[in-house]
Design goal:
Blueprint (H helix, E strand, L loop, with lengths): L2 H8 L5 E9 L2 E8 L4 E2 L6 E2 L8 E10 L2 E9 L1 E4 L3 E4 L13 H11 L4 H8 L3 H15 L10 E10 L3 E8 L4 E7 L2 H18 L3 E4 L3 H8 L8 E4 L1 H25 L3 H9 L1 H5 L7 H13 L1 H15 L7 H17 L3 H12 L1 H10 L4 H16 L6 H12 L7 H4 L5
Parallel strand pairs: 2-6, 9-12, 12-13
Antiparallel strand pairs: 1-2, 3-4, 5-6, 7-8, 9-10, 10-11
Helix pairs in contact: 2-4, 4-16, 5-6, 7-8, 7-11, 7-13, 11-12, 12-13, 12-14, 15-16
The chain binds zinc ion.
The site of zinc ion has 7 residues, from loops.
C-alpha cells in the first residue's frame, strides 16, 4: 500500500489524498487534497465543476489525536458559487461547514460530554469549555430526530436553571419514551407557547395528559383552545415534595434566628448544623445526623412538628397506595397544615388544596413515578454541569444529547474498521 493511502486509512479519511506528513512542536501536520473534481456546496446538495476564482483557501481542522500528538489536517480548498448560498468555500466530507474540527473529533467530544465532567473533557481534548459548547450544539442539531415530536400523548413540561441569576431552560419530556424531546431558553407561559406553536394544533390536540409544576404559566398555555385544552393537567410529585421541604426550612430558619436573637449562640450553632438532619430523607441520614434527629424529636416544638408535616407530605407519594388512599391522606394533610399554626405550612396547605385535582390525577395516571423522577434527576445533574457554558444553546444541547432521543457513540463505533 502506498504511504498516502495508508495514512488516509489510518486517519479514517475517505475521499482525500495525503500529500505530506510533518512534525511541528506538539503536533503532527497532515496535508491533504480532495480526490473529487467537483466542488460541493457545504450547505446543500449543489455541486459544480466551476470554481468561483483561482485563489485557494487555506483551511485547518483538528482531528483525533495521534498518540499524544495533536493532529492537524490542512488543505487548500476552492470556492464555488451556489445559486442558493452564494460564494462559499467548498464542503469537505470529513468536517461540518465553517468548523475547525473534523466530524470524528466532534463526535468524540460530544460522546465524552454526556459522560465526563468539565475538567476531564477539557484536559483530555485540550479545548476550552465554550468550544465544547459549540461542538455539542452542532452535533445535537445534526443528530436530533426530526420526528421526535410525533406521537406525543403524555408529556411533562418543566423548567430547569442552567445558570445562576435565574436563567432557565424549559424542557418537554415524553413520559412514554422517558426522554426529553423539546427544549428552549426561558420559562413560563411564553416558553410553553413556543412549544405548542412548534407542535402545531393537530398534534397538540392529541395530547392526553401534561404534568407540570404548580406555577400558573404552563397551565395557562396548555388551556388555550388552540393548544391542549382537553388534556388532563397533573402536578409532578417532586414539586410538591420540594415545597414541603422549603416550608420546613423556613420554620427551621425562623427558629434558628430566634435562638440567635435570644443570645444562645451555642444552641444556634448546633441547630444550624442540624439542617441536613432535617432536610434529608430519614433513610439517608449519617449516624451523627441520626443522633441530632433523635434529640430534635425529644425536644419536640415547632421544628419537629414542621418535620412531621414534611414527612406526611412525602408519605402521599409512597409506592403501593391506591388513588383512594392518596385522596384520603392528602385531605388529612391539608387539614393538618391548616391547623399547624406554622405560617409556611398554612401556605403549603392552601397550595395543596388548590392543586388537589392535579396531584390526584398524577397518581391516577401514574405520570409521576420513579422512572420519570429518575429522568428529572438526570436532567438536573446534567444542567449543573452546564453552568459553565455561556449560551443557553450549549446547555440545551448537553441536555438533549444526554436525555434526548439520541444514542451517541464514540467515533470508532460509527463506522467499524475493517482489516
Ligand atoms: Zn448551497
Amino acid at each position: 500500500m502506498r504511504v498516502s493511502a495508508a495514512f488516509s486509512r489510518l486517519l479514517r479519511l475517505s475521499g482525500v489524498w495525503v500529500k505530506q506528513v510533518r512534525f511541528a512542536p506538539e503536533r503532527v501536520i497532515v496535508e491533504v487534497a480532495l480526490r473529487r473534481r467537483r466542488l460541493r456546496c457545504p450547505r446543500c446538495e449543489f455541486s459544480t465543476r466551476h470554481r468561483h476564482d483561482v485563489r485557494p483557501v487555506a483551511s485547518v481542522w483538528r482531528h483525533l489525536d495521534l498518540g499524544v500528538w495533536r493532529l492537524e489536517l490542512r488543505a487548500r480548498l476552492r470556492r464555488l458559487d451556489c445559486p442558493t448560498h452564494g460564494v462559499r468555500v467548498e464542503g469537505v466530507p470529513f468536517a461540518r461547514p465553517d468548523c475547525r474540527f473534523t466530524r470524528d473529533f466532534e463526535q468524540l467530544v460530544a460522546w465524552l460530554a454526556t459522560r465526563a465532567d468539565k475538567t476531564t473533557i477539557t484536559r483530555l481534548a485540550r479545548i476550552d469549555w465554550d468550544t465544547v459548547g459549540r461542538i455539542i450544539t452542532r452535533v445535537s442539531d445534526d443528530e436530533l430526530d426530526p420526528d421526535r415530536l410525533q406521537d406525543l400523548f403524555e408529556i411533562g413540561i418543566d423548567e430547569v436553571s442552567w445558570r445562576r441569576q435565574h436563567r432557565y431552560l424549559t424542557l418537554v419530556s415524553d413520559h412514554q419514551r422517558r426522554c426529553v424531546v423539546w427544549g428552549a431558553e426561558g420559562n413560563g407561559q411564553a416558553a410553553a407557547d413556543a412549544f405548542f406553536a412548534e407542535l402545531g394544533p393537530e398534534r397538540s390536540q392529541r395530547i392526553e395528559a401534561i404534568s407540570m409544576d404548580m406555577g400558573p404559566g404552563y397551565a395557562k398555555s396548555a388551556r388555550k383552545p388552540e393548544h391542549a385544552p382537553r388534556a388532563t393537567l397533573c402536578i409532578d410529585n417532586f414539586h410538591v415534595a420540594a415545597l414541603a421541604t422549603k416550608a420546613l426550612d423556613e420554620v427551621r430558619r425562623d427558629y434558628w434566628n430566634e435562638l440567635r436573637s435570644l443570645g444562645d449562640q451555642q444552641a444556634a450553632k448546633r441547630f444550624k448544623d442540624a439542617r441536613w438532619a432535617l432536610l434529608k430523607n430519614p433513610e439517608h441520614l449519617t449516624d451523627t445526623q441520626a443522633a441530632t434527629h433523635r434529640a430534635l424529636r425529644l425536644a419536640g416544638g415547632e421544628v419537629w412538628r414542621a418535620y412531621t408535616l414534611k414527612e406526611a407530605t412525602r408519605a402521599i407519594f409512597a409506592a403501593g397506595l391506591t388513588s383512594d388512599d392518596v385522596g384520603h391522606l392528602l385531605g388529612r394533610l391539608i387539614s393538618r397544615c391548616a391547623r399547624s399554626r406554622l405560617r409556611p405550612f398554612v401556605h403549603l396547605g392552601q397550595t395543596l388544596r388548590k392543586h388537589r385535582q392535579g396531584i390526584l390525577a398524577a397518581r391516577r395516571l401514574g405520570l409521576s413515578n420513579a422512572r420519570s423522577e429518575a429522568l428529572n434527576n438526570k436532567v438536573r445533574l446534567i444542567t449543573r454541569r452546564a453552568y459553565g457554558f455561556h449560551t443557553a444553546q450549549a446547555a440545551l444541547a448537553l441536555v438533549m444529547l444526554t436525555c434526548g432521543p439520541i444514542t451517541l457513540r464514540p467515533p470508532h463505533e460509527l463506522h467499524p474498521l475493517t482489516p
